[in-house]
Design goal:
The chain is of the alpha/beta class and 345 residues long. The protein contains 10 helices and 17 strands. It has helices at residues 9-12, 35-51, 65-73, 92-106, 117-129, 241-253, 261-265, 296-302, 318-322, 331-344, and strands at 22-26, 28-29, 32-33, 55-61, 78-83, 110-114, 134-138, 140-143, 151-157, 162-166, 174-178, 195-198, 229-233, 256-259, 286-290, 307-312, 325-328. Helix 4 crosses helix 5 and helix 6 (241-253) packs parallel to helix 10 (331-344). The longest helix has 17 residues, at 35-51. 43% of the residues are buried. The model is unreliable at 1-15 (pLDDT under 50). It binds flavin-adenine dinucleotide. Flavin-adenine dinucleotide binds at residues 159, 234-236, 260-263, 274-279, 291-293, 295, 297-298, 301, 311-314, 317, 330-332. Pfam families: ETF (PF01012), ETF_alpha (PF00766). Belongs to the ETF alpha-subunit/FixB family. This is Electron transfer flavoprotein subunit alpha/FixB family protein. Residues 22-212 form the Electron transfer flavoprotein alpha/beta-subunit N-terminal domain.
Length: 345
């Protein structure tokens, strides 16, 4: 939390309106929202019930009204829509201007942002401008009921050895970024009522330092947090060729490929595939762990999976205890059989 003397007038001004409500900053790219935005809206709804306040969403972009309508279906009471050509592609400066505009006008007591690359960049830029405290990369969010109304933002600290709950007592809004995959989104309800309120943000393109010259799309876009099926491999694969086999199984099941840290460190697969404490936190419906022992640093990243299948030669490997289905055997025999079965169905 910054020093109190650093606070600007607008953050402490006594004549200003009360800070009320929870604002979720929705992240969208090309009109497609990142699931973490809906997960945060779900969590914001649960917290708003304790506080007795509104859930607000902010949708920024150009031509993104459908995303605003979806935000209502996912739990927002009011959606602020900042629709501007300068917001067509993410850039720190115009996006933070738009968020600051909404914070100043509508005064949410809590602001939540997904801890994606974009969200981390944006939240930091906003917190320093207000200025207020920001708890980054949270894995638990809750609130203390009135009168304190404090955001309880928790995140692992000291290599996951303890959970630190960080409070922002003096400044408003209280800000946090939260990891994708740790909260559950509500079932979207297209019949939910809410209001969409356009906001006029003054953005002058000539004063924005960064220009978008070209957008190059990567073909290998790994979206582990969004995958419904993940087939992950570890040191037990013995080399990069193992991942070709896992890719076949993932393709047959319509899923993605994940990895443990040693497999990434050995250079068998890119870090974008890593699951765990220093990788991604995932919540697929099905997680198949092949040749992974189940160290705690791996388990924290995939314990939200609905069903875990482990393939391991060692029946005593910790992953076997964490699995719903434990297959004891050589993965080079078991995985081809699984591929055959998956293709047959
Ligand atoms: P191992 O522990 O070596 O396990 C290999 C397994 O494969 C064994 O159980 C073995 O029985 C099995 N096996 C071998 N051959 C076969 C075969 N042919 N068929 C079937 N099974 C076979 N780890 C992560 O995964 N993600 C992280 O984000 C992460 N972050 C970390 C952060 C910190 C600060 C630290 C200290 C560690 C971190 N680690 C992380 C590392 C973690 O502690 C473990 O070392 C790692 O998860 C082990 O990877 P593994 O299961 O692939 O390898």
């Amino acid at each position: 939390e910054p020093d109190e003397t650093a606070a600007t007038e607008q953050s402490v001004s006594p004549e200003s309106r009360e800070w009320r409500g929870i604002l979720v900053v929705v992240e969208q790219h090309d009109g497609e929202a990142r699931p973490v935005s809906w997960q945060l809206l779900g969590q914001a709804r649960r917290m708003a019930e304790k506080l007795g306040c509104e859930v607000m969403a902010l949708v920024m972009g150009h031509g993104v009204e459908p995303v605003a309508r979806l935000a209502i279906a996912y739990g927002a009471d009011v959606v602020y829509l900042a629709n501007h050509p300068a917001l067509a592609t993410y850039r720190t400066q115009p996006y933070s201007e738009a968020v600051l505009h909404v914070i100043r006008h509508f005064r949410p007591e809590i602001v939540l942002v997904g801890a994606t690359y974009t969200g981390r960049d944006l939240a930091g830029a906003i917190a320093t401008r207000i200025p207020t405290g920001l708890t980054a990369d949270c894995t638990m969010l809750d609130v203390e009921p009135p009168p304190s109304r404090l955001l309880l933002a928790s995140r692992p600290a000291f290599s996951e050895k303890l959970m630190a709950t960080i409070l922002c007592k003096r400044h408003r809004p209280q800000m946090a970024t939260a990891r994708p995959g740790v909260f559950e989104a509500l079932e979207p309800d297209p019949g939910r009522t809410g209001r969409i309120q356009p906001v006029e943000v003054v953005l002058d393109e000539s004063r924005i330092a960064a220009r978008v010259v070209e957008i190059a799309r990567s073909h290998d876009r790994v979206r582990l947090e969004e995958a419904r099926v993940i087939v992950a491999g570890g040191r037990g694969l013995g080399g990069p060729q193992g991942f070709r086999l896992l890719r076949e199984l993932a393709d047959a099941l319509g899923g993605e490929v994940g990895a443990s840290r040693p497999a990434v460190e050995a250079g068998w697969i890119d870090h974008a595939h890593q699951v765990g404490q220093t990788g991604h936190t995932v919540r697929p419906r099905l997680y198949i762990a092949c040749g992974i022992s189940g160290a705690v640093q791996h388990l924290v990243g995939m314990s939200g999976a609905e069903t875990v299948v482990a393939v391991n030669r060692d029946p005593d490997a910790p992953i076997m205890a964490a699995a719903d289905v434990a297959i004891v055997g050589d993965l080079y025999e078991v995985v081809p059989a699984l591929i055959e079965e998956a293709r047959r169905r």
